[in-house]
Structure formats: C-alpha cells, structure tokens
Amino acid sequence: MYKLWLLFTFTGICAAQKDISLSVFTVTSKSMTVQWSGHTGASSYKITATPKNSPEQPVFAQFSGNTVMGSVNSLTPNTVYTMQLEAMDNALNVLSSAETEETTAPDVPSILQTYSKLSDSITVEFAEVPGATGYILRAESKTGNFFSETNVTSSPSTVVQLQPYTDYILSVMSVNSGGRSQPSYPTEARTVVMAPKLNTSSPTNETILAVWAPVEHAVLYTLVIIREGSYVRNKLNTTNTEVTFDNLQSGTSYCIKSMAWDAEGRIGDDKTVCQITRPSSPDVIDIQVTQGRAPGIAIYWVSVQGAKNYTAWTTSGQNCSTGNTNCYILLAECGQNRSVYVTASNEAGISSPSQSVNYITYPCPPENIWVEEPTAGDCYVMWEEVPLVEFYVTFIKRDDGTENLCNTTDTTCQFSCMCGYTYLTSVFPYNKAGPSLLAHVRNYTTIPCCPQDVLVQLVSTETLEITWSPVKGAELYETTAAETRDIIHCNDTSPVCALSDLRCNTAYSVTVTPCSELRGCNSTCAPNVHETAPCSPEILNMTQTGNSTYRVLYTTPNFPNTSYTITATGRYNRGSCQSKDNSCELTQLLCGTTYEVTAVATSAAGGSLPGFSKTLETGPCCPDSVNVSQVTQAMTNVTWSPGGGARSYVTTLTSQRGHAKCHTLDTHCLMGCITCGTNYSVYLEAISSTGHTSQCNYRGFSSSACCPTGVKLYRRTNYSLRVYWRSVGLQSQNHTVELYGTGANYTCIAAAGNTYCDIQEETCGDVYTVVVAPVGQSGLKVTFCQPRTYSVPCPGSNAGMGKYPFLQ
C-alpha cells in the first residue's frame, strides 16, 4: 500500500487531502476484485493491472466516483499483478492514487474420470495445472443435504465420509498463494453399496452358519470361503441373507469374504470374517477310581483337533476342565453307580459328548443314626438302610472308656445303657469296594439320675429355697412348680434354687429336673410339696363400737386354720386383737389419737407380710367440764375445758321451748335466744381437724326466772308508795323490789304469787329508780332486770306522778 499526498490549487488556496486506500477483495484465475476508500472530489476511479515480470500488456478498468469496489477481468492465470488505483476529477486530474500486488489463481483443472470402490468414498482423477500448489475436491449431494471440500495435493484423490449408494456432484479447484480457481465442470458419481456384515457361528463340528442383515440397494451377494492354510476358494452367489457351509473339517478355522452387488452390476465393499468349527467328540480311553484322603476318579481321553479346553462330566453333575488330555474329579458321592463323559470346546462352542463310561464308588455311611431307649437301661443303635451295602459294623463307646462292638446285616444294634452316661456310636457299612471312608458319630446321653435328697424350706413369705446333692450326668438343673404352669424358675448348674414371687397361701409341688445338653431332661423325678406363708389380709373397715373400742373388719384370703392379728400403734399406747374370723375388736384406745392399724396372718407355714396399714383416728376427747352462766335474760355464756384432738366445738342448749346452738374454734361461746325460767339440756360435740366427732352430754342448765313486766309506781293516800308489776312465767318465785332515791333507798320483799309491794315513804318529792327482780330458789335475785325511773311529787302538788324516761 502506498500513501500519497495530492496537492490541489484552487484560487490560491492549498488544501491537504486524505490518502486513498486499496485492498484486493477476491482473486480468481482471470480476475481480481479490489476495494478502496472513497476520495473527496473524485468523479471517477481508474484501476490498472500490470503484469509483473511478464511482457503482457496492462489491463484497465474505470469506475464512477460513487463506486468503491470493482473487478479487473481478462487476466492471465498464475501471474503476479501490480494493481494501481487513481482517483480523478472531472478534468481527469489525478487527485490521489494507491497500489498493491497480488497473484492470480491457477487455471481451472478438468476432471478426467470418477469411480467408487468403497461405499463411503469416490476417487477423482483430474488434469493438474501449472502453478497450482494444491487442489480442492468439492462434493455435494444432489439433495443438497451434504457438502464438503477436501484439500488434496495431486491427482488422483479421494473424497471420504460419504454415504453408500448415494449420488454426488463433484468438481475440482486449483489453489496457489493468490487463491483458488473457479470450480471445474461438475461431474456426477455414485458410491457403491456397502458390504454385508456377517454374523457367523458353528452349530456343529462340520458346519458354519453365516447370517447378515439385508444391504440396502443390494440385489446379489457373493461369499468366498477358504480354509486356513489352504489355497482352495469356494465362491457362492445368493440373494438370501443366510448361508450354511457344511462338510467342513472339525476344529478348523475358515475365513469368509462377503460382497454385495447393486442393480448396475457394480460390486461393493468386501469384508472378511474368520470362524473356527467346533471340535469333534474326544474318545475316553481310561477311568481310574482312587481312595485315600481325597478319593476321586482320574479320566483319560484322546485329544482332538482345534480343541482349546476339555471338560469331563459325571452323571452326578461333577466336572473338571483342563487343556490336557486327563483330569481328576473328587468324589462327592459315595455308594453310587455312575458314568462319565468328556466334551471338547473352543471359540465356536462345545462338541458333542463322548460315549459315557461307568464306574462304582465305595459305600456311604448312614446319614441318620439315632439311639432309642424303650425302657430304662435297654438301648438300641438304629440307622437307615444304605444301598450297595453287604454288612455293618457298629462301635459303641461309653464316656468312662468302656467299648462295645456289634456286627450285623440289620439296621439295629442292642446294648445295655445306664443313666447319667454318654455313649458315642458310629456305624461303618461295607461292600465289595471296602468300608466307607468315614462314619458319622452320634452322641447319646442317657437321662440324668433324679436327686434323692431334695430339701424345700420357706425362707421368706413368698420364697421357697430348694437344695439337693449333685447327680451324675446332670449339666444343669431345672426347678419348676406345677402351680406356676411349670415355668422354669431356676436353670442353673448349682444344686440350689430359690422360687420367688410365688403366690401366698399356696401349696407348691416343687420338682427338681436334672438336664443334660445332649439327652435333655429327666421328667420322671418325684415332686416335693411345701406351702408358702399366708397372704396378707386387707383391712376393709373400722367402726367405733364404744368410747375406746373399735371393731376391725378384714379379708380372710387364707386356709381356715389361719389366725389373724390386728395391731393398732399410736403415739402413747398400742392395742391388738387376734381372731380366726373376719373381724376382731380393739379395746382401750385413747380418744383424740391417731393409730396405724395393720393386719398379719399366721399359719403353720409361717407369718404373712403385714397388710397395707390404715390410719384410725379416734374421736376427739370430750371436755372435762362445761359451765353455763346467764349474761342477760335471753343470753348465756357457755365455757368449757379443751378436749384432746378437738379443733372445733358445737354447743347446744335444748328445751321444750326451743334450743340454742353455736359452732366455734374457741372454748367459750355466747348464746342467745334463751327463754327465762326454762330447764335446758346441755350437749357438746367435739370435732377433730379431719371431721371425726365425739358427742358429749353434761348436767342440765336452768335459766333464771323471768323479769316482771309492766312495773309501775303509785303514791297512796297514806304517804306510802306501791310498786306494781306483772309476773312472767312461773308464779312461785319471790320478788324483791328496790327503790333508789336521792334522799333514801327502800327495799321490799313480795311473797310468791304477789304482784305488788308497798313502801312507806319518808320524804316526798323525790326521783326513784325502781328495780323489780325475781328471787331464785337459791335465794339469789336476778341481777339483769331493767330499772325504771319515776318522779314522785309531794301530796297537793300540781305536778302529778310522772315517769322519767328510762335511762340505760
């Protein structure tokens, strides 16, 4: 690229113009397309292509001022050109210029021929052109869904990754440093069909089966088979997709080449697979039966062609495999008449089995051996019959070393056995091959002997302790009681057991059963009976029958000869009673005291646990003394001494005219509603904090005589005063009349039945306080009668006798 500065003169003004730029856009064999930047003021552009190092003439092209891209044609292929651009005004003056060098592409090659030998490629042969450094093969499917360009260096070259039996349009382009030429004239070509994919197998030792999927567009298939190491080829044409080659050699490898033909008669790909036939059956030549620690059979056979491995099978399912011509099978079965055969195998499969050969094994030992003891001391060894046996030898050995031998053709053997011993028994069967290699040993242990000195004793109310001496053959002892559904209470090796958590008042039949692990337990031992302690009685009710006597009612869950003791324990004393019935009476219990009452049962077996205790609270104590004093005519004050255990009191005064009651926490009570001149009965109820009560009776109380009513004071003509009243209640009381004046005091006694009393006045005109009160039988007057106040004027005074208001 050249940078040019152009100087233009317009009316004496100089201006600098921007350089124009030039670049080659595309190159072909005979043309170049260039692109440039526009120049201000340019009305046209001229492009000159001058061959470099060539006598050929330059080529020109001119474009308008609005054009920025143009092509120069009629160039020579594979030639270096100097490309010059000139920007000109209307007067064809050059305003700016630029130039560059570029080489034209080589000449267009021509395709000579095309052909397809493989289903995924087409080979193109073309005429190479001078100056080309490489070529591009272009392949395009006629459907337009495939397009590829392959860079190659020479002819012929191949386009790959194509589809079988597909039409393609092919062209070739030459390439150098300047670019690529135009594509050659296109040519059509079609790929061949693909080869069938054979799946081969050898069903027998003389055949090979070839199977394949149909090949699309194939009308014929060709298969060629050749034996390994041979030059003889067998060719087969078929339209099927399955072929069987027979009459082949066993254990021999064959290679099969497969090809397909299309409708145009073109042969497609070829693929070769190799397959070996199965080996022939080997011949067994010898079988040897061996004994010892690892008894078995050794099998020998003749090798066959093509066999990689041999397997010998017995009819019992045992086998051995090897690449040699012999193998050894351990005998897992005894007492059998079996046979053996051999197969050969290779990659194709397994041959047919050989002819079987028979063999016989030694006898088996009896699997099931047992000992029966129909009666104590008389035992029989028994077993199941074993096939292929002529006679049996039985060995019996006791654990103290004593041995016994029995030879028989039967399946039983009798021997004498004792309790507490273990016997080891084994049976060996014999036949012509000899004895069995082993014999199962069966242990038989006779039942342990029963202990004879079992001692049962009661160690607590519900626990029995059992002790005994050890016996022979017993490994552990089970202690049960029939009354507990024969639950095993002890399962121990020690000769002692404690049966706990038993039911009270129950006779238990205790059995000690000796046991051994092998033989089991001796269930013939006699039981021992012992009773547990009585059951604890339950207190049902406690009732007070007297001041210090209580009857206790309880349950009697034990045998009739059981006695019951009831004990009441208090803070200061203790009481008890005993009975065989369901109740007994506690006496001399203190009032106001809390007792804990328990019941215990006693029998010949022992004493029970105390039953659940119940609390007995005796009634509170009555006060020793009660005093009733009258406060007013209708009110009394009752006091009493404290009662032990009492928290509150209810005091009642009762008469035919009514009653009065008060409930208090104190030891005194003020009571109203008292009727004068009445005899009252005095009752007191002491109540404890828990609600227990005691009824207390005391000497009666008589209320005071009633105060008279209607008291009036009259003056008489003889200077005397008369006090008049109305008696209330009984008329059998005397009354005392008292007058208190400022000048004098007077007293008068009125006999029973009188309702007035006269008093000789000494001084007139005085004010008197008059009190009329009944006198009791004890001579004491009632002190709470109300006073009356009167003014008494002298005779002749204008003031009459008046009554002052009563003052309290």
Low-pLDDT residue spans: 1-17, 799-808
Q: Number of DSSP strands?
A: 71
Radius of gyration: 74 Å
Strand content: over 45%
Shape designation: elongated
Helix/strand structural class? mainly beta
Average pLDDT, to the nearest integer? 86
Question: Helical element count?
Answer: 0
Largest sheet: 5 strands, antiparallel
Distance N to C terminus: 153 Å
State the helical fraction. under 10%
Protein name: Fibronectin type III domain containing 7a
Keywords: Signal
Domain Fibronectin type-III: 16-107, 108-194, 533-621
Signal peptide: 1-16
What's the SSE blueprint?
Elements: E1 7-10, E2 13-16, E3 22-27, E4 32-36, E5 44-51, E6 59-64, E7 69-72, E8 80-88, E9 94-103, E10 110-115, E11 122-127, E12 134-141, E13 147-152, E14 157-159, E15 167-176, E16 179-180, E17 187-190, E18 199-201, E19 208-211, E20 220-227, E21 233-238, E22 242-245, E23 253-261, E24 267-276, E25 284-290, E26 296-301, E27 309-314, E28 319-322, E29 326-330, E30 337-346, E31 349-350, E32 357-360, E33 369-375, E34 378-383, E35 391-398, E36 403-408, E37 412-416, E38 422-431, E39 434-435, E40 441-445, E41 455-460, E42 463-467, E43 476-481, E44 488-492, E45 496-499, E46 507-516, E47 520-521, E48 528-531, E49 539-544, E50 550-554, E51 563-569, E52 574-579, E53 583-586, E54 594-603, E55 606-607, E56 614-617, E57 626-632, E58 635-640, E59 648-655, E60 658-664, E61 668-671, E62 679-687, E63 693-702, E64 709-715, E65 720-726, E66 734-741, E67 745-750, E68 756-760, E69 766-775, E70 788-792, E71 802-803
Antiparallel strand pairs: 1-2, 3-4, 4-7, 5-6, 5-8, 8-9, 10-11, 11-14, 12-13, 12-15, 15-16, 15-17, 18-19, 19-22, 20-21, 20-23, 23-24, 25-26, 26-29, 27-28, 27-30, 30-31, 30-32, 33-34, 34-37, 35-36, 35-38, 38-39, 38-40, 41-42, 42-45, 43-44, 43-46, 46-47, 46-48, 49-50, 50-53, 51-52, 51-54, 54-55, ...
